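Readers of this paper often ask what the protein records in our data store actually look like. Nothing more is needed to write down the fold, since each code stands for a local backbone conformation. Below, we set out a record of this kind in full and without editing:
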Amino acid sequence: MKSAHNLAVIVGSVRENRFGPTVASWVAEQAAAHGGFAVHTVDLADYDLPLELPDASPKHAGDDYPRPAGMAPLTAALDRADAFLVVTPEYNHSYPASLKAAVDWHFTQWAAKPVGFVSYGGAAGGRHAVLHLENVLSELHAVTIRDGLAFPNYFMTWQDGRPADPDAPGYAKTMLDQLAWWAGALRAAREAVPYPA
């Protein structure tokens, strides 16, 4: 039997007084209870993420891509992940610049790996951010998961670090089941034949 899939739970916001770590902590707890994952939280606030990119493309430069030294732990965390859960707020109908920078500094780290989404925001619950992320990550050859979690008006619907909706754990399980299936299928495929990105 294969070992548990390495799951990176990415905290996408670096904003002051952000709510992202609260959501990520709950989601990581659900993923750990699921049993199919070795869960690692990757908080973008912990890494150097400049907006100015090198002239070369990470797709073509591969391991020689000139990333800042402070980004090395982030790159390593993305490399070893079999799957991702991106926790994102919605800023002006899209996702944070910190998350876009983390995506753009990498390429092969996303390819042929599944990505699930957990969003939060106002009335839309961060869904606009997820729509944009799906488009961007598909360009990087990631496989986006259909069922995600969205938390509208999170500032009114979370209590003591947990969503008040009693159905939220069930929705999380559906997402995690799909993510585990794709993680296993894609890991086996990558091990059998290198992905032709």
